[in-house]
Amino acid sequence: xxxxxxxxxxxxxxxxxxxxxxxxxxxxxxxxxxxxxxxxxxxxxxxxxxxxxxxxxxxxxxxxxxxxxxxxxxxxxxxxxxxxxxxxxxxxxxxxxxxxxxxxxxxxxxxxxxxxx
Length: 117
Known about the structure:
Helices cover 34% and strands 22% of the residues. The protein is of the alpha+beta class. The chain has a single domain, classed as NE0471-like N-terminal domain (NE0471 N-terminal domain-like, 2-Layer Sandwich), CATH 3.30.2020.10.
């Protein structure tokens, strides 16, 4: 099975994005609701539509901020449902607050190897 990744995205509503995946599916995800329901100093700034629109597609995922301030598991984005933060997400948030950057090296490495094929 091929790894799942995002190939493109665009803002479709105030704080929602339309995601295009490599399996030719599309999904609208309401990121704003997640931020409203889980306020945090690391990503509250993305409630501002101008800041929200500054996302990037990096290593097959949609990210906000230079140090990936806001990022979600691909599988959840693909389902269109962002669940509660898991242990990895909570660790990433703590690291960011303490000035350490966080990137999931294993998934990035897997994606890069796939793209080289």
